[in-house]
Amino acid sequence: MSDLFNNKYRIPSARAQWHDYNYGFYFITICTDKREHYFGEIYDGKITLSSLGVFANSYIKRINHRYTDAQILSHVVMPNHVHLIIRVYKSHEKQQNKNDTDVNEKMSDISKRCGRLSNIIIKYKSAVTKYANKHDIPFTWQERFHDRIIRNQKEFDTKKNYIEQNIANWKDDDLY
Question: What pLDDT sits at residue 53?
């Protein structure tokens, strides 16, 4: 079976081919297109979120209630990106959409091969985009997202500290 959708070019996955993304701990970075400041601004070490930033932040908090197989352990919404530490648990039930079409089945198959992590991030990005469209807010995400598999407690602590200090260290951030 081809990875092409509607016979269009599909970029190969950036995910580690050796890893099963259906469980584990991950440090995630999701950027806005062209690193535009859609989510707010930082002044004097404090972030003021835009209405879209408030929604992006509140939806992250919903993930813990929405999915029984995933938990956000730390997060921050920055002016042009979002950082998360997410845990995806090994066992979960896959729910089928009763209104699947051939196109949805094709994308569902591709999504399953990407792993549960990608599925959750795709749904998050979609929810933020839908909110922006509903409220006539110009907005686009950068394609894809960056993940780092967290392999031990030291990496977890380092990434958690990075998230907690991200606003204070904004001027030194690579995404500034």
Answer: 98
Cα gap 58→55, rounded to integer Å = 5
For residue 107, the model assigns a pLDDT of: 44
Domains of the chain (ranges, CATH numbers): 24-167 (3.30.70.1290)
Q: Where does residue 14 rank: exposed (0-12), middle (13-18), buried (19+ CB within 10 A)?
A: exposed
DSSP-assigned states of every residue in 32-101: BGGG---SEEEETTEEEE-HHHHHHHHHHHHHHHH-TTEEEEEEEE-SSEEEEEEEE-S--PPPPPTT--
Per-residue pLDDT tens for 27-62? 999 999 999 999 999 998 999 999 999 999 999 999
Task: Determine phi and psi for 125, rounding to 5 degrees.
Answer: -60, -40
Residue with the two structure tokens 């950027």: 31
Encoded tokens for 96: 């089928």
pTM of structure: 0.77
